Amino acid sequence: MIQTIEEQSGQRPEEILADSGYCSEKNLDALESAGNPERRIEGFIATERQKHGEYKEPCPRGPLPAGASRVDRMRRKLKTKAGRAVYAARKTIVEPVFGQVKHARGFRQFRTRGIDKVRGEWALVCLTRNVLKLYRLCYQ
Description:
Elements: H1 5-9, E1 15-18, H2 25-33, E2 42-45, H3 70-79, H4 81-93, H5 95-103, H6 115-139
Parallel strand pairs: 1-2
């Protein structure tokens, strides 16, 4: 059974940042129709992969074409100054951590099976990363 973000954490986010693997008409429709209009979740979901340091052209002026899909509207939203600023925060929040765990620690796949064992293995990976970070901060 898949749980919503609200069911998992007991909280309702104001914004959702996601990479291009989650951008689909179905997901954007679900995000748009979730909740009442006063408490709508603002979504910022990449529409395509962007290489490191690649510059995207600025947002075109004028109204959207009449037949624009949800993906087209999201693409336009991410090209605005506000959209670029919000989505850029994602790169500083979680992306470096996963990159460091995958590259520096060599952790690319879980070695155990079962959700409880995987949670334990992930906790151990995070613990070793944090202890190493503290060690480097205090002793180097």
